[in-house]
Amino acid sequence: MSQKLSGVKGMNDLLPGELGGEMAPIETWQYVERTARELFSRFGYGEIRTPMVEDTALFVRSVGEETDIVGKEMYTFEDKAQRSLSLRPEGTAPAARAYIEHSVANLEPVTRWYYMGPMFRYERMKTGRYRQFFQIGAEAYGSREAAQDVELMDMVVQLLEALGLKEISLNLNSLGDEACRPAFQKKLVEHLTAHRDALCADCQRRLEHNPMRVLDCKNEKCQAVARGSPDILQFLCEPCQAHFADVRRKLDALKVRYVINPRMVRGLDYYTRTAFEFIASHPALGTASTVGGGGRYDKLVKSLGGPDVPAVGFGLGLDRLTLLLREGGQRYSAPPDVFIAVADEGSQDEAFTLASRLRREGLKVEFDTRGGSLKSQMKRADKTRARFALVLGEAERQAGRAQLKPMAGGEPLSVALGEIAQAVRAAPQAPAPQG
């Protein structure tokens, strides 16, 4: 017997209905994607699709050589031409690379893009965190204004509202810029050095190369040290203060609730000024968990060889959003309009033809090509939660009529075989049977 093969650990199949195990049904994912596409288009954002494989140097230069993502988590390999390539661990750097490569800055003053797709990181797994994970993100290039930052945050807020997700808070901070951040980092290093022995091994390394990342560590002892660290908001220069005040003022005008969190930093090196995270408190994700975040990265495009163009963006974890929706118990798949069952073997071909015709007429139709007993077919009809079952046998073929049985209960309808689609559309939309 051949050995059974399994998928790669941490990379999950997305299946319809209840087949997906710990993952939400694919219909839930499709619902989130449809909702996001429709909403983002209202904000003027267009979709882009970048390759899953990029030059490793793209992430070293953008995400940061000393970050955990580049140092520990990327899937990196050499191709046959000895080029170092990596599966993308995030979406902002590939979008910026595409923006530069296609000289978009020469074509329009402000560019708004969104993307959806899989990302890859070799990290410790838990509920909602996988080695292949899916992200919805958006990027805006060309505007330094606080309004652009707030537009993106408002877009996330409206998406979460459209999905019916509550108990998600917006955490807000400013990380300053090259003019004021060095003074903060100096004081931060002094504080962390005084408590070096309390830091984990990773944070002791970060202290030498990227001290702000210590504030993002999940180790309890490191968090205790971080709570006593200097407040970055006290070090902002006047332009950064004014920008952050404008962000807050515009959020207030939109009645978007937020919490200022001066200890919140993002896990990537390219952020400047505005940084934000959306935090969910829900048993489905264990403790409080980040479902998305973003911020401003005014120097990223230039650092990758492009023009000096400001930018701001966000990324949302689709895996976590779908898990939250699954906990709500809502179904996102439309049941069949009609399930066609056959009463005898001689009706199989005509039922097959009828199913095809009804699909051409716009109905969602299920038909079991295996045939089988009428009892087993009706069990299948019930399991699909179809609105109607239609039984086709010799008598129905001879009469040119059949009965549509409402699966949610009610009197059967006698309908001519050529008028089934019209009858289904005219019938009241009773709730589909729950299964």
Automatic annotation (TrEMBL):
<comment type="similarity">
    <text>Belongs to the class-II aminoacyl-tRNA synthetase family.</text>
</comment>
<keyword id="KW-0963">Cytoplasm</keyword>
<dbReference type="InterPro" id="IPR045864">
    <property type="entry name" value="aa-tRNA-synth_II/BPL/LPL"/>
</dbReference>
<keyword id="KW-0648">Protein biosynthesis</keyword>
<dbReference type="InterPro" id="IPR006195">
    <property type="entry name" value="aa-tRNA-synth_II"/>
</dbReference>
<keyword id="KW-0067">ATP-binding</keyword>
<dbReference type="GO" id="GO:0005737">
    <property type="term" value="C:cytoplasm"/>
</dbReference>
<feature type="binding site">
    <location>
        <begin position="270"/>
        <end position="271"/>
    </location>
    <ligand>
        <name>L-histidine</name>
    </ligand>
</feature>
<feature type="domain" description="Aminoacyl-transfer RNA synthetases class-II family profile">
    <location>
        <begin position="32"/>
        <end position="335"/>
    </location>
</feature>
<dbReference type="GO" id="GO:0004821">
    <property type="term" value="F:histidine-tRNA ligase activity"/>
</dbReference>
<dbReference type="InterPro" id="IPR033656">
    <property type="entry name" value="HisRS_anticodon"/>
</dbReference>
<feature type="binding site">
    <location>
        <position position="139"/>
    </location>
    <ligand>
        <name>L-histidine</name>
    </ligand>
</feature>
<feature type="binding site">
    <location>
        <begin position="90"/>
        <end position="92"/>
    </location>
    <ligand>
        <name>L-histidine</name>
    </ligand>
</feature>
<dbReference type="InterPro" id="IPR004154">
    <property type="entry name" value="Anticodon-bd"/>
</dbReference>
<keyword id="KW-0547">Nucleotide-binding</keyword>
<dbReference type="GO" id="GO:0006427">
    <property type="term" value="P:histidyl-tRNA aminoacylation"/>
</dbReference>
<dbReference type="InterPro" id="IPR036621">
    <property type="entry name" value="Anticodon-bd_dom_sf"/>
</dbReference>
<dbReference type="Pfam" id="PF13393">
    <property type="entry name" value="tRNA-synt_His"/>
</dbReference>
<dbReference type="InterPro" id="IPR041715">
    <property type="entry name" value="HisRS-like_core"/>
</dbReference>
<keyword id="KW-0436">Ligase</keyword>
<comment type="subunit">
    <text>Homodimer.</text>
</comment>
<dbReference type="GO" id="GO:0005524">
    <property type="term" value="F:ATP binding"/>
</dbReference>
<protein>
    <recommendedName>
        <fullName>Histidine--tRNA ligase</fullName>
        <ecNumber>6.1.1.21</ecNumber>
    </recommendedName>
</protein>
<feature type="binding site">
    <location>
        <position position="266"/>
    </location>
    <ligand>
        <name>L-histidine</name>
    </ligand>
</feature>
<feature type="binding site">
    <location>
        <position position="135"/>
    </location>
    <ligand>
        <name>L-histidine</name>
    </ligand>
</feature>
<dbReference type="Pfam" id="PF03129">
    <property type="entry name" value="HGTP_anticodon"/>
</dbReference>
<dbReference type="InterPro" id="IPR004516">
    <property type="entry name" value="HisRS/HisZ"/>
</dbReference>
<feature type="binding site">
    <location>
        <position position="121"/>
    </location>
    <ligand>
        <name>L-histidine</name>
    </ligand>
</feature>
<keyword id="KW-0030">Aminoacyl-tRNA synthetase</keyword>
<dbReference type="InterPro" id="IPR015807">
    <property type="entry name" value="His-tRNA-ligase"/>
</dbReference>
